[in-house]
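User: Hi! I have a protein structure encoded as tokens and I'd like to know what sequence might fold into it. I'm fairly new to this, so please keep things simple.
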């Protein structure tokens, strides 16, 4: 047979260079658009994740009430939600009122305390170097920038709390409606696998949340006992803050230490040093014993991976990223195990 060597037909069989460039450019633009959409909506995903964790807590609490009382599900869920909100409002009022009074006293006495500390530090060579470094213009500018960013991020987080609460309540009332809706978005052949993945995610997040709540409770008890023995004012409020902020691993104890040291400075520099030592001891116990005990019942999450996730999420999304970095790491590990490693081994 005679071969067809027409160049026009060959150009139709193989895309031209211009067409390849157009395809690559279109792919890059589409990828860039998707990345921009992901960056813009990732904060919303974090709020949904926070609401899901609240719903897991509400559901776990209601299940406990139902097991103890044999009441109907809707009654247990209602008691779970209302009692948690009332307790949270009471704690917020207690902490807010006490901290406001203490901050007024702190504003009056802090300048004198700082002057006394500077006078003591100036008596030694190392102390003079520390004072010069801390009081330098560059250090003060960095401190002001950090404080502004910190409080701006904090107020942004508090502004989103009502959204998270409503999402959590809606998820609590009818969780199957939302999980079934997600499954329905998957093709029929993959729906069973999607259910398995969602069940695994829910199981691991429940275990993680139980472990975290237990860790927070232990930190609260140890801090309350230690501060009470030291004779610290506001020991109960400071212990509550330490327990609540310990929800954030690694960086939470540092944030909890700041108000404790400020209150301790009202007493004496020695008291402040004792408080720092107490918090370091509690952090050592929590990290090496409590967290180790909890991790045995969870996925294997390397500590370095959690810190890296916190740094990345904190830079990208601010306060919510720092708070939710650990549960987000749990989700990523479960997805990799269920969707990638399991298929690769089969």
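Assistant: Happy to help. Inverse folding works backwards from shape to sequence: for each of the 346 positions I chose a residue that suits the local structure. Here it is:
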């Amino acid at each position: 047979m005679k071969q067809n060597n027409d160049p026009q037909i060959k150009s139709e069989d193989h895309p031209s260079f211009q067409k390849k460039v157009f395809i690559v450019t279109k792919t890059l633009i589409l990828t860039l658009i998707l990345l921009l959409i992901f960056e813009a909506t990732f904060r919303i995903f974090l709020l949904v994740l926070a609401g899901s964790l609240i719903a897991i807590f509400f559901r776990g609490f209601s299940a406990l009430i139902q097991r103890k009382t044999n009441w109907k599900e809707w009654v247990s869920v209602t008691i779970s939600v209302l009692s948690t909100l009332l307790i949270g409002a009471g704690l917020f009022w207690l902490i807010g009122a006490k901290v406001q009074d203490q901050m007024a006293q702190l504003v009056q006495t802090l300048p004198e305390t700082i002057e006394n500390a500077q006078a003591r530090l100036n008596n030694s060579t190392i102390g003079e170097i520390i004072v010069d470094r801390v009081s330098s213009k560059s250090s003060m500018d960095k401190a002001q920038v950090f404080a502004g960013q910190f409080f701006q991020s904090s107020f942004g987080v508090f502004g989103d709390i009502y959204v998270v609460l409503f999402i959590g309540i809606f998820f609590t009332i009818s969780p199957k409606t939302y999980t079934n809706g997600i499954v329905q978005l998957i093709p029929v052949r993959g729906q069973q696998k999607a259910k398995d993945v969602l069940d695994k995610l829910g199981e691991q997040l429940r275990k993680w949340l139980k472990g975290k709540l237990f860790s927070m409770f232990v930190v609260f008890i140890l801090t309350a006992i230690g501060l009470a023995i030291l004779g610290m004012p506001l020991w109960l409020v400071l212990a509550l803050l330490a327990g609540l902020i310990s929800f954030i691993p690694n960086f939470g104890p540092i944030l909890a230490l700041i108000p404790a040291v400020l209150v301790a400075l009202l007493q004496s520099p020695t008291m402040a040093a004792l408080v720092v030592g107490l918090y370091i001891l509690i952090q050592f116990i929590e990290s090496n014993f409590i967290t180790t005990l909890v991790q045995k019942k969870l996925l294997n999450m390397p500590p370095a991976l959690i810190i890296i996730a916190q740094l990345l999420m904190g830079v990208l999304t601010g306060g919510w990223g720092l708070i939710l970095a650990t549960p987000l790491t749990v989700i990523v590990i479960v997805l990799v195990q269920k969707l990638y490693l399991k298929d690769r081994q089969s």
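A useful reference point when you look it over: Residues 9-13, 147-155 have pLDDT under 50 and may be disordered. Feel free to ask if any position seems puzzling.
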